[in-house]
Amino acid sequence: MNLMLMGLPGAGKGTQAEKIVDKYHVIHISTGDMFREAMAQETPVGLKAKGFIDQGNLVPDSVTNEIVKERLAQSDVFQAGYMLDGFPRNLDQAKALDQINQDLNLNLDAVIDIQVDKNLLIDRLSGRFICRDCGATYHKLNNPTKVAGICDRCGGTDFYQRDDDKPETVKNRLDVNIKMNTPLIDYYQKAGVLHQVNGAQEIDQVFVEIDKILNAIN
């Protein structure tokens, strides 16, 4: 079984990926892992990628596609199947993946898109705040202080947010990802392999939905 996992930041993709691997034993392949492995092994395409990264440049799609093909050609993928995470990121890469699958005699069986409303994601991702006095970390939804405005650990009342956690930063990050994901969602919907699940539910319930989809195609 060969899968692709999609979802905006904060949608719970990492948690569901672990659950899928635990049950179905597919090989979880993230873009970062592929690059690190290719560069560590000093494969020809890994050295190409390293050249761009060392110069502070983005790795071109052509090199990324080569790294993906190199990874998907390995024997563990043929034995267990794959779950791609972070690739493809655009339509050109999606079409390249089609060609890679064709060359390797593989099929993409399902694209799982974990959907969560953007406003809920903003709350999830921008909810973290930190006590300036002792560094204790809280979350307004998942881990608030026991008494509002007072640090549980030191009794301090001065809190701050990191720039990355501020709502306006989070919103911009989500907007970029939505713009990037929308053409891919359309592409895989037309291909008949897209399955969308409600990621606003409890973690276990989200997996129940995913599990039903995977059971049907496995």
Q: How far apart are the termini?
A: 6 Å
Principal-axes geometry comes out as globular
Using only CA atoms, what is the Rg?
Answer: 20 Å
Element-level helix/strand string: EHEHHHHEHEHEEEHEH
- Biggest sheet: strands, sense, closure? 5 strands, parallel
Q: What's the name of the CATH homologous superfamily? A: P-loop containing nucleotide triphosphate hydrolases
- How confident overall, as mean pLDDT? 93
In DSSP terms (H or I, runs of 4 or more residues), the helix count works out at 9
Number of domains: 1
Query: Fraction of residues in helices?
Result: 40-55%
| Strand segment count | 8
Percentage of residues in DSSP E strands:
15-25%
CATH class: Alpha Beta
Category from helices, strands and their pairing: alpha/beta
Output the CATH topology.
Answer: Rossmann fold
List the uncertain runs: none
Assembly type of the chains comes to single chain
Question: Which strand order do you get reading across the main beta sheet?
Answer: 2-3-1-4-8
Can you offer a commentary on this structure?
Keywords: ATP-binding, Cytoplasm, Kinase, Metal-binding, Nucleotide biosynthesis, Nucleotide-binding, Transferase, Zinc. Monomer. InterPro entries: Adenyl_kin_sub (IPR006259), Adenylat/UMP-CMP_kin (IPR000850), Adenylat_kinase_CS (IPR033690), Adenylate_kinase_lid-dom (IPR007862), P-loop_NTPase (IPR027417). Belongs to the adenylate kinase family. Its EC number is 2.7.4.3. By secondary structure, this protein is α/β, with parallel strands linked by helices. The chain has one domain (3-116, 177-217): Rossmann fold, CATH 3.40.50. It is 52% helix and 15% strand. It contains 9 helices and 8 strands. The protein has helices at 13-24, 31-40, 44-54, 61-72, 75-80, 91-104, 118-125, 167-191, 203-217; strands at residues 3-7, 27-30, 82-85, 110-115, 128-131, 137-139, 159-160, 194-198. The strands form 2 sheets. It has a 5-stranded parallel beta sheet, sandwiched between helices. A 3-stranded antiparallel beta sheet has the order 6-5-7, with no helix packed on it. Helix 2 packs across helix 3 and helix 7 (118-125) packs across helix 8.
